[in-house]
Amino acid sequence: MWVSELQEKYGDMCELYMGTERHVWLSNGDLVSKIVSPSTTNNFLIRITARQGLDEIDVTTKGITFNRSLESWSFNRKFFNQAISASKFLKQTVERAHEFFSEMENYWSNLDPDANLNLSEWMSQFMMELIFFMTTNRRAHTLASYYNMISENKAEIPDTVLKEAGTFIKNIESWLCALQFFMDTPKLWRDYIPSFRRRADALKGDINKVNQSFLELIRDRKQEIDRTPLDEPLRADMLTMLLTVNTPRDITTNIVDDEHTRPMSEDEVRGNLLEVIGAGVDTHYPEVKELMMKEIDSVFGNEPGRPITQEDLNKLAYCEAIIKEGGFPDFG
Q: Domain of life of the organism in this record (predicted)?
């Protein structure tokens, strides 16, 4: 609410201080796009300014989004792009999307006829399910969990499995909260104001849980790879591909690169996985849904069932922007 008030009062750009930290906030999409456009056409190689709080939770030398080390950022970006561009990964993504959508439709058919079908919420669960599987080759069971929450019928999945998956997702949500808290809360507040200090300590505990969970997942997958016979193909999930780049089992595009010749470390793999899965968890924006529905109503009016034409699609500019935003990020 505060951010919205600032935007309404000051317009496209405003400057503020939180403690001693200076912030410049942008609310104009054209300004933001100049910063996040591909690095090959961008003057801003590093998109995140120095944040002592982010250093404190060890994300400024990991992954891509918050990484301020140009060498590390370039290394991670290369293999992230190489993984999501692999033909095996793209093919498997399409196959799993069909599979999970069919599962979701099956849940819909078992809902009470009078139930309100909240498509926005279902699609959030669908995207989380797909991203989690394509990243780790494991199910998050978000579709089943949501179905159980709104339906008197229950999915045929053990409660222990759903509970374990739910705990994993909640830990990732806590990690996302920690990013925001440590990015925007001054160190003076975190260290000396009791309520902020307790919050910081609690979030650090959650971060440790998430990091440990991902390290266990990574080490389990490394053992699976080692046990897999050389003549047996490996699965094309992101975790497996990141663990095998620059090794004899490399299943990505395997482009020769004299600059980046070493395999990725466990910490580097963990940083990339967290960013991708975190983006899948943090996808629900009610105000975006409202604007999208207004645009759809303005185009189709009282004829939602009529055939869609190219002219209709050309009018759905906001919907197109949402689709582009929902895909994999372009890291240049």
A: Eukaryota
What's the CA dihedral at 187, 189, 192, 193 to 10 degrees? -160
Q: Is 13 helix (H, G, I), strand (E, B) or coil?
A: strand
Same domain, 126 and 32: no
Instruction: Report residue 219 as tokens.
Output: 């080490």
What's the rounded Cα separation, in Å, for the pair 154 and 289? 28
Cβ atoms of 35 and 241 closer than 8 Å: no
Query: Which residues, in sequence order, are bridge partners of residue 24?
Result: 15
- Read off the pLDDT band of 332 (50, 70, 90): very low
pLDDT at residue 43, as a whole number: 75
Place of tokens 């069919």: 102
Please give the tally of structural domains in the chain: 3
Q: By CB neighbour count within 10 A (0-12 exposed, 13-18 middle, 19+ buried), where does 62 fall? A: buried
pLDDT digits (tens, 9 = 90+) for 18-46: 767 777 888 877 777 777 776 667 777 66
From 241, 262, 281, the end of a domain falls on 281
Cα–Cα distance list, 182 to 49, 57, 267 (Å)? 13, 8, 20
**Pick from 105, 98, 170: which is nearest to 133 by CA?**
98
Residue 9 tokens read as 């009062």
Task: Transcribe 170-222 into DSSP letters.
Answer: HHHHHHHHHHHHHHHS-HHHHHHSHHHHHHHHHHHHHHHHHHHHHHHHHHHHH
Residue of 124, 127, 171 lying closest to 149 (CA atoms): 124
Contacts of 130 (CB under 8 A, 6+ apart): 93, 96, 97, 100, 280
Looking at the structure, tell me whether residues 173 and 137 fall in a common domain.
yes
306: tokens are 């009529």
Residue 76: exposed, middle, or buried by beta-carbon count in 10 A (0-12, 13-18, 19+)? buried
Kindly tell me if the per-residue pLDDT of 330 is higher than 50: no
| CA 89 to chain CA centroid, nearest Å | 17
Same domain, 246 and 227: yes
